[in-house]
Design brief:
By secondary structure, the protein is of the alpha/beta class. The protein has a single domain (about 1-5, about 30-229), classed as archaeoglobus fulgidus dsm 4304 superfamily (archaeoglobus fulgidus dsm 4304 fold, 2-Layer Sandwich), CATH 3.30.2170.10. The chain has helices at about 15-25, 90-100, 125-135, 195-200, 210-229, and strands at about 1-5, 40-50, 55-65, 70-80, 110-115, 140, 160-165, 170-175, 185-190. α2 crosses α3 (about 125-135). The longest helix is centred in the last third of the chain and has 18 residues, at about 210-229. The chain binds 2 DNA strands through β2. Keywords: Cytoplasm, DNA damage, DNA repair, Endonuclease, Hydrolase, Magnesium, Metal-binding, Nuclease.
Amino acid sequence: MTTVRIPAGWPATEEQALAVQDELRSRVVLDESGPPPGTGRVTGVDVAYDDERDVVVAAAVVLDAATLDVVAETTATGQVSFPYVPGLLAFREIPTVLAALDALPCDPGLVVCDGYGLAHPRRFGLAAHLGVLTGLATIGVAKNPFTFTYDDPGTARGSASPLLAGTEEVGRALRTRDGVKPVFVSVGHRVDLDNACAHTLALTPSYRLPETTRRADSLCRRALRTTTA
DNA sequence: GCGACAG
DNA sequence: ATCTTGTCGC
């Protein structure tokens, strides 16, 4: 497992982090539809923390998009690089996630993040940020609606409703399992919202959350236990 | 001014 | 995110 230190120049205060978001958000690409679902590769990234020991472990798990079989997986460990502040989650996760992605032996294809992309107070959440830094196609699939509002989608898998910041659609509440709480999908980089939702449905044949995030979540937790123990 | 608030 | 066993149900 590779180890990373906090990058030189990494924001140390909320004001610095806000300035970075402000500078980078213009680089998000929104005029590409993205790779078609069910083709190529799809990669899940997630992190687990041990705040007591100031340790964060990231995992990247690459799946074959057609079969959802695992093609490759990596982990990376690092120091916690930022406190959790709503709206600044990316600064806590990105250095270690980048290290995990760098360690992959193959192209990750579309990257699925555990959190938001454009559904963000400044329209620059984790998935958008990671996309801009890597150039990869990214989407965000979150478990909670954050501060946004939505009308409950129909009860059937595949039903969706707009995720709203006021009247602006920043993402979609998407039902991935009949009668189960929806997930909250938003665009990251180089993928449109319809395609992001199509990918999310392709990644949820059996569970509420995408196979990518399920796999990445269990891997980084396992790796953290091993590191901590 | 006081909460709420992705992970 | 994390603290945490068993239990009800498909």
